[in-house]
Amino acid sequence: MEHQKTPSTNLPFLSFFFFVFHFPSLFFLAPSAASQVSKWGKRVPFLVLALLGFLLLGICCRDLPLLVDIYDEVGIGGGASGVAGGLLHPYSPKVKLLWRAEECWNESLKLIRIAERAKQSKVLNTGRQEAVHSMNFSIIRRRGILRPAVSLKNINIMDHNVENCLASCRIESMDKHAAENLVPGLSVPLNVAFHMPEALNVHSQYYLEALYLACQNSVAEMLNLGVAPRELNFYKTSVGSLLEFAGEYNAVVICLGARAAFLPESCRGVVTHMQLSDNFREEYPQHSPSILSDAWIAVQGPRDLYLGSTWEWRSANYSRNVPTVEASEALEELLLKGSVIYPAISNWTVREAVAGLRAMPPLTPHGSLPILGCVDNVTGRNHACKYWVFTGLGSRGLFYHAWLGKLMAQAVLSRSEHSIPSELLLWKQKMKQ
User: Fold this and answer.
1) CA–CA distance from 84 to each of 91, 112, 334 (Å)?
2) What is the pLDDT of residues 64-88, one digit of tens each?
3) How far apart, in whole angstroms, are the C-alpha atoms of residue 411 and residue 387?
4) Residue 3 predicted with pLDDT over 50
5) For residue range 210-268, what is the model confidence (pLDDT) as tens digits?
6) Residue 75 or residue 375, greater confidence
7) How far apart are CA 86 and CA 142, in angstroms?
8) Which CATH number fits domain 266-359: 3.30.9.10, 2.40.50.90, 3.90.180.10, 3.20.20.70?
9) Residue 257 to residues 176, 302, 320, 335, 354: CA-CA distances in angstroms?
10) Fewer CB near the terminus (10 Å): N or C of the chain?
11) d(CA 406, CA 429)
């Protein structure tokens, strides 16, 4: 259910060492005063991420009472998460496997299947007209992703990395002619491209909505079975201070997103929603993959695609709206990059331009990794792992969200960081230096 609450007028900043946290949106558990819950029941959120992640209430023990409150002033998918490109695969730009690639890939596929089932269930339970309308908006496009090589210095490295791909998300190296057969009109500057046939194109906004629907369905199912009391509440509002809820929740998960001021950098990205002009008949082939390069093309249909993304570093502009001048400059930049690999993109026109601000995590020996962990010391009070932070997913939130969400759930339930890989806790050591 969705509730409206009056935002707090108290907007303090909480200091964490030399860095300042600003909490525009917080994700909490339900009040511990709820009389219908056994005193032994824990009230904990599994995870609510900056990119998508509304916790799925069926992850833990079926007999565990759960009451979950979510606070987010912009609503489901209202931030950068809802405008993400959605090209999901487990590889870096050099087609090297990302950190803990197999775990992240497999858990993401599981959550996607859960979201798809929730949407299918809704379609079956609605009227015919609404069902037909809903089926026109797919969560996933399963046509793979193609990455043409555009840098000579990386070709040898990419050829080597292909040999170490996941069996569940293969990479096929192909020449120009094979790539052009996949995407007619494609330009392959260096005569080699890398095809990921199992990679996915996820519509982030639809996925977020379906995943939240799955959470609601899980709550209803548990109530119908009489297994354990469960409740999920969504408050579309902001919260000024953690201390406002100091005594109300057993645990608090804070998803700061791009407003995490202690992160080294933020980056604003503009994405353009493109449509093919009526006077052009050369549609994007229905069965062709989406494209990754300096600009990416996330295909939605023969005359419908997203083109992204710009990178405006150190931006503090959180607005999803894109002014005319910014939209024009972004389109010029994206068309220039996009036309290098798909010249026909110049025939497409803009339907809408939207933007999001990414929270970019610090660089580690394993790449740029998200930040997880207990932050009880933020409140200045003695708690046993009550307050948790999850941020810094950068441009890979869709890839990381499911597996790290699962780890976060385990950590919060156990009130221990033992389930969190040490690589994701390195930021704590740097804070102390």
Assistant:
1) 17, 15, 15
2) 777 777 877 777 877 778 888 999 9
3) 11
4) no
5) 888 888 888 888 788 877 777 788 888 777 777 666 667 778 888 776 565 556 688 99
6) 375
7) 12
8) 3.30.9.10
9) 40, 33, 14, 28, 17
10) C
11) 24
Query: Mind spelling out the 3-state secondary structure of the chain?
Result: CEECCCCCCCCCCEEECCEEECCCCCEEECCCCCCCCCCCCCCCCCCECCCCCECCCCCCCCCCCEEEEEECCCCCCCCHHHHCCCEECCECCCCCECCCHHHHHHHHHHHHHHHHHHHHHHHHCCCHHHHHHHHCCCCEECCCEEEECCCHHHHHHHHHHHCCCECCECCEEEEHHHHHHHCCCCCCCCCEEEEECCCEEECHHHHHHHHHHHHHHHHHHHHHHCCCCEEEEEECCCCCCHHHHCCCCCCEEECCHHHCCCCCEEEEEEEEEEEECCCCCCCCCCCCCEECCCCEEEEEECCEEEEECCCEECCCCCCCCCCHHHHHHHHHHHHHHHHHHCHHHHHEEEEEEEEEEEEECCEECCEECCEEEECHHHCCCCCCCCEEEEECCCCCHHHHHHHHHHHHHHHHHHCCCCCCCHHHHHHHHHHHC
CB atoms within 10 A of CB 222: 21
The ranges of the chain annotated as CATH 3.30.9.10 are 266-359
Question: What is d(CA 243, CA 245) in angstroms, rounded to the nearest whole number?
Answer: 5
The answer for residues whose C-beta is within 8 angstroms of residue 257's C-beta and 6 or more apart is: 25, 50, 79, 80, 357, 359, 391
Sequence letter at residue 125: N
CA neighbor of 428 nearest in space, from 386, 352, 376: 376
Judge if the upstream peptide bond of residue 309 is cis by omega within 30 degrees of 0. yes
Please state, in angstroms and rounded to a whole number, the distance separating the CA atoms of residues 242 and 307. 38
In one letter, which amino acid is 257?
A: G
Alpha carbon 257 to its chain centroid, in Å, reads 10
pLDDT tens sequence across 263-291: 668 899 999 999 998 889 899 999 999 99
pLDDT band at residue 143, thresholds of 50, 70 and 90?
A: very high
Residue 257, pLDDT score: 65
What is the Cα 318 distance to its own chain's centre? Answer: 16
